[in-house]
Structure to design on (597 residues):
């Protein structure tokens, strides 16, 4: 036994166990998230939602999964055999691989072996996350092309344009985080957010406001306070990356039947479905890790190893709720509006914000200069984002069209 | 030991993909095999401890360039049958000669183990990866020793982008679009 152990190494076994645990947890999470989404949307639309199987309809997704598993696997005549089979797998695998760099807790000790609660603490963690995001395009593009049918092809081409555009702003929105944390490793980014805001000298010397400073001792030192523009850009781009409403143009059911997965059924369709929900959880988990302190939170004496996991899970659930909320409220964007938002607003705003963060973080700059630059650039970014599309002025509102018709 | 097994598997995969790419009939399949071989190379970089290069390999080559390839292939519809007419007269002969030259060069380097990068070999790569870390080490080398080459490359890329913008610009269609929008509004309002 020990000979085999020496051959493959303890590190390998630990990594294997981690991978299996993460994979199993993700499958379970997907089942729960699908149920969660249906329940929340039902609640927002004054319906009951799934309620037949298990308590509160919890087993409904399981039943649906079993149904999909036993359904006939259908392939259209004009489809490309290999690419058609490969596409659903490629849609799911990168999303699951992305979780390798998400830290869900601190370090656990099993006797002599110390196990960090993260798949792998890569020193290029953020880049790895972006790399997996960039591989995510293939599943959708291939599904669109390989189906040999026009609606999937249109969906596939749309999604290529959308994903390439929003990948840029997603990547740019993470640069300020790397600047502030001084690292690309997700574990170190979480560690940089530990503790509270603490020493705020901002209000020193001002009579009443000086008391406010003491309140900052209770506010956690998360990046969201200083980096919320980066967070806004990250989250909007993240929604676009997952192809979820209001950015679900690749599968717009009113225009493209079901977009890229029109021709898919059975277990292959289930893989697309799984990939999308794992991606939603991944974007939520990354938002928590990068901007909301990851597993940071109060730790109580009993079961002290469990608290980080609980805080991480609760924060992630909050973001999954936000995803569902947006789907229930926002109408789908028009294609040209989508491109306008991505290229003309998010990317320039992200570049400006990188500049602001770089200036503010430069050591040895006078505080007054720093504040002035910060304020001026901040207003610039804000005004830039809020300013509407100039073409909107030339668009004709329905009321005007009606009045001109009757005149 | 396990690393060696993965290393072997990765290179069999990379070579297999490359050979399959050469013989694939379909343009999309060719692109896919190229993606496969690039991802395998990224894994090989990871095994060598070059984390940053591995991530960049996937982001740039597999994630950006090959997606654009696929996009163009899909849009132009050249996926069904390849065009076998060669526009350049001596393309095949030239390719063979240059390929032989490259193979000879690689063989020479492999046999004599020429130090191409002239890097500082006194430090162990694993030690550098622990402290100061892969990304920092790459950044320090790139922005000090190889700064000139790095900046020259970025200037080259910017020049290429500007060149594409100039070549692809269609002045008349842009002005026509701009002129049409207000006139349609005027019509509607009237």
């Amino acid at each position: 036994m020990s000979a085999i152990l020496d051959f493959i190494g303890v590190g390998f076994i630990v990594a294997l166990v981690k991978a299996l645990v993460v994979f199993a947890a993700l499958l379970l999470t997907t089942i729960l998230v699908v149920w969660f989404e249906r329940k929340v949307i039902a609640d927002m639309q004054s319906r009951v939602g799934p309620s037949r199987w298990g308590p509160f309809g919890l087993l409904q997704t399981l039943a649906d999964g079993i149904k999909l598993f036993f359904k006939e696997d259908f392939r259209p005549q004009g489809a490309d055999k290999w690419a058609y089979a490969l596409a659903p797998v490629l849609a799911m695998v990168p999303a699951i691989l992305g979780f390798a760099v998400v830290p869900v807790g601190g370090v656990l000790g099993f006797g002599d072996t110390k196990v960090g609660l993260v798949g792998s603490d890569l020193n290029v963690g953020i880049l790895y996350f972006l790399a997996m995001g960039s591989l995510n395009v293939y599943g959708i593009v291939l599904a669109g092309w390989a189906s040999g049918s026009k609606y999937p092809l249109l969906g596939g081409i749309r999604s290529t344009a959308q994903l390439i555009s929003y990948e840029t702003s997603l990547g740019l929105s993470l640069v300020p985080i790397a600047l502030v944390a001084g690292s690309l490793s997700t574990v170190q980014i979480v560690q940089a957010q530990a503790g509270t805001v603490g020493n705020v000298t901002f209000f020193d010397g001002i009579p009443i406001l000086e008391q406010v400073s003491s309140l900052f001792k209770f506010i956690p030192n998360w990046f969201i306070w200083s980096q919320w523009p980066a967070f806004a850009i990250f989250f909007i781009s993240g929604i676009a990356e997952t192809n979820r409403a209001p950015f679900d143009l690749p599968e717009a059911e009113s225009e493209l039947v079901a977009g890229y997965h029109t021709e898919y059924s059975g277990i292959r369709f289930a893989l697309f479905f799984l990939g999308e929900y794992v991606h939603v959880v991944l974007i939520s988990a990354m938002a928590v890790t990068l901007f909301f302190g990851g597993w940071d939170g109060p730790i109580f004496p009993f079961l002290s190893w469990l608290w980080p996991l609980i805080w991480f899970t609760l924060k992630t659930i909050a973001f999954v709720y936000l995803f569902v909320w947006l789907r229930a409220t926002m109408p789908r964007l028009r294609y040209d509006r989508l491109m306008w938002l991505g290229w003309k607003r998010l990317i320039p705003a992200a570049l400006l914000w990188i500049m602001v963060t770089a200036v503010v973080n430069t050591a040895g700059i006078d505080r007054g200069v720093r504040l002035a630059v910060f304020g001026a650039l901040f207003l610039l970014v804000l005004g830039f984002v809020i300013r509407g599309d100039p073409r909107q002025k030339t668009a004709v509102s329905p009321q005007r069209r009606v009045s001109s018709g009757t005149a | 030991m396990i690393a060696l097994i993965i290393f072997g598997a990765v290179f069999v995969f990379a070579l297999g993909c490359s050979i399959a790419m050469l013989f694939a009939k379909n343009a999309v399949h060719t692109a896919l095999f190229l993606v496969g071989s690039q991802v395998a190379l990224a894994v090989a970089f990871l095994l060598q401890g070059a984390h940053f290069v591995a991530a960049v390999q996937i982001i740039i080559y597999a994630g950006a360039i090959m997606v654009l390839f696929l996009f163009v292939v899909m849009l132009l519809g050249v996926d069904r049958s390849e065009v076998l007419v060669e526009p350049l007269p001596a393309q095949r002969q030239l390719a063979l000669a240059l390929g032989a030259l490259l193979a000879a060069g690689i063989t020479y380097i492999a046999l004599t183990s020429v130090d191409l990068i002239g890097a500082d070999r006194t430090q162990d790569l694993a030690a550098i990866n622990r402290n100061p870390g892969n990304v920092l080490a790459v950044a320090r080398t790139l922005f000090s020793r190889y700064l000139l080459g790095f900046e020259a490359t970025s200037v080259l890329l910017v020049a290429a982008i500007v060149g594409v913008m100039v070549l692809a610009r269609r002045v008349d269609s842009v002005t026509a679009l701009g002129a049409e929008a207000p006139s349609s509004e005027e019509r509607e309002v009237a």
Observations:
- Confidence is low (pLDDT under 50) at residues 176-190 of chain B.
- Chain B has eight helices and no strands.
- Residues 51-76 of chain B form the longest helix (26 residues).
- Residues 80-190 of chain B form one domain.
